[in-house]
Design brief:
The structure holds two protein chains of two kinds.
Chain A: H1 2-18, H2 36-50, H3 62-78, E1 84-87, E2 92-97, H4 121-133, E3 137-143, E4 150-157
Antiparallel strand pairs in A: 1-2, 2-4, 3-4
Chain B: H1 11-32, H2 36-61, H3 70-86, E1 101-106, H4 129-141, E2 146-152, E3 161-167
Antiparallel strand pairs in B: 1-3, 2-3
The chains are: A alpha+beta, B alpha+beta.
């Protein structure tokens, strides 16, 4: 779809120009600040979350929200559902996309695995921002083992 | 997963994603650069990068015929490219005075759909500089050098948004992209 192409190209330019490694991992390796790309994704995720149909805002269960991210949000943004969702039922979820749209143009397999995180920062922020609008604080990180598959780990922060 | 979810993305949501992301980008650049001209230049540069790649996608998607004049090229940008990517069709006023200067008039600019007005202290910001860069980059890939700037901007109080395209060479032996 043409509109997605525009977003994908814009995303590529943004990664090329704006990505910077997290300058201050903090004690124990925990991220203390959002990178620029993540914070942009967060803003967009928040606004996307606000524009969702009203019935989706009535979630009670955490798991329902995550299912919603895997289905509705992922379809709206990436034209496909998340391929799998796993949880330890204690607030940690792993969302796996076997052919993540923003990684497909890069490569297939193990080449560029080190470069891949840059292309996931915005989307991590997006997930975080949408969750925020739906009432959940979260920490989202992404992992790539072989392109174009990737996993997003979502840890819901308890108040 | 038992819940009923939407069947597929509404086209509106896709466009929203691009527009919202662009808004976040402009906001970020305004944080990084104090001067409006620097933000404009940066957006134009990013747009150029996008345009050089977008033109391939455009040519693959549309079945544009070979162009024989700058006027034709401008009409295709307005009536085909803008339509495909932004869902709007700028008008191209008849230009008798010059053979290589054209305008695209946008009554509604989708990029600034969610922008009410320019932020305070940013009166020289050309919010949609990306578009100028995209057009310039795309044209350059088909060997048409051009200057592309904003002549009018609704966000600055003008009645319409007008993009000016000035082709830099007189029509002579030009190389056009062939349709396969």
């Amino acid at each position: 779809m043409a509109d997605t192409v525009l977003f994908e190209f814009l995303h590529t330019e943004m990664v090329a120009e704006l990505w910077a490694p997290d300058p201050d991992p903090g004690p124990g390796g925990q991220k203390t600040s959002l990178t620029v790309l993540e914070s942009m994704g967060f803003r967009v995720g928040q606004t996307l979350g606000e524009r969702l149909p009203q019935e989706t805002l009535g979630f009670r269960e955490e798991l329902d929200v995550l299912r919603f991210l895997c289905k509705d949000l992922w379809v709206a943004v990436f034209h496909k559902q998340m391929d799998s969702l796993r949880t330890n039922h204690q607030g940690t979820y792993v969302l796996q996309d076997n052919s993540f749209r923003l990684l497909i143009p890069m490569a297939s397999g193990l080449q560029y695995v080190e470069e891949a995180p840059k292309f996931l920062a915005f989307t991590c922020g997006l997930l975080c921002g949408t969750l925020h609008t739906l009432g959940f604080q979260s920490l989202v990180t992404a992992f790539v083992t072989a392109l174009p598959a990737c996993k997003f780990q979502v840890v819901i922060q308890k108040p | 997963m038992s819940q009923e979810f939407n069947r597929g993305p509404a086209p509106q949501q896709n466009k929203d994603l691009f527009i919202l992301t662009y808004g976040a980008l402009v906001a970020q650049l305004c944080k990084d650069y104090e001067k409006d001209e620097d933000v404009n230049k940066y957006l134009d540069k990013m747009g150029y990068g996008i345009g050089t790649r977008l033109v391939e996608d455009f040519l693959a998607q549309s079945s544009v015929r070979r162009c024989h004049s700058y006027s034709e090229v401008t009409h295709i940008i307005a009536e085909v490219a803008f339509k495909i990517y932004l869902g709007v069709t700028p008008s191209v006023p008849c230009n008798n005075s010059s053979r290589n200067e054209f305008s695209l008039i946008l009554d509604k600019n989708p990029l600034s759909e969610f922008v009410g007005e320019l932020p305070a202290g940013r009166s020289s910001l050309c919010y949609c500089s990306l578009l100028c860069g995209i057009i310039r980059g795309a044209l350059e890939m088909v060997h048409l050098a051009a200057d592309v700037t904003f002549l009018q901007d609704k966000l600055k109080g003008d009645s319409v948004t007008e993009i000016g395209i000035t082709f830099l060479k007189q029509p002579e032996e030009k190389k056009y992209r062939r349709k396969k």
